[in-house]
Design a protein that fits this description.
The protein is α+β, with helices and mostly antiparallel strands. The protein has helices spanning 23-39, 44-63, 113-120; strands at 12-19, 72-79, 84-91, 123-129, 133-141. 28% of the residues lie in helices and 25% in strands. The protein has a five-stranded antiparallel β-sheet with strand order 1-2-3-5-4, covered by helices on one side. α1 packs antiparallel against α2 and α2 packs antiparallel against α3. The longest helix is centred in the middle third of the chain and has 20 residues, at 44-63.
């Protein structure tokens, strides 16, 4: 007779919240993400990276993806089997796709957010969100080393 070892099944944990397309909504997105990831007992290194990524993507949704009277959506998916955290921020401005801007002078005050996302995330990109929106997503591997500085992906610049 063979004794079987109990198997634990890895699960995917999800969180989604609509937030106002304002600076306050973007700040709340960051705070909620940190709270949720802490509750899921995610490693401090992943939480720190995710906090910055959420802050940038939510700020972009509130600033560049804003449509009067429409919210943006923050979604987090922690896939324990794959060891990946997926951050997705959806807004209603599908025609405004994010892109890493050309090099800026050191005293330029904006345009560095996507460079930060590119440096902190292992992968990121955009996808359409019908009927007229978009989702900007970023993935952070839980078990990997620091992400690569260059993603090798191409993007269409927001204006």
């Amino acid at each position: 007779m063979h004794a079987s070892t109990p198997h634990t099944h890895a699960t995917a944990r999800t969180f989604a919240q609509q937030l106002s397309s304002t600076r306050r909504g973007a700040r709340l997105a960051r705070l909620l993400a940190v709270e949720r990831l802490s509750a899921w007992e995610t490693s401090p290194q992943v939480i720190e990276r995710a906090e910055h990524v959420v802050a940038e993507l939510a700020a972009n949704a509130a600033l560049h993806g804003r449509v009067q009277g429409r919210d943006f959506l923050l979604a987090l998916t922690l896939d324990e089997a794959a060891g990946t955290l997926r951050i997705a921020v959806s807004d209603m401005r599908g025609e405004r796709r994010p892109a890493i801007p050309p090099e800026r002078s050191p005293d330029h005050e904006s345009g560095r957010g996507l460079l930060l996302v590119d440096a902190l995330a292992d992968r990121w990109g955009t996808e359409p969100r019908p009927p007229s929106g978009k989702t900007v997503w970023a993935e952070i591997d839980q078990h990997g080393e620091r992400p690569k500085a260059v993603s090798g992906q191409t993007y269409v610049q927001c204006r």
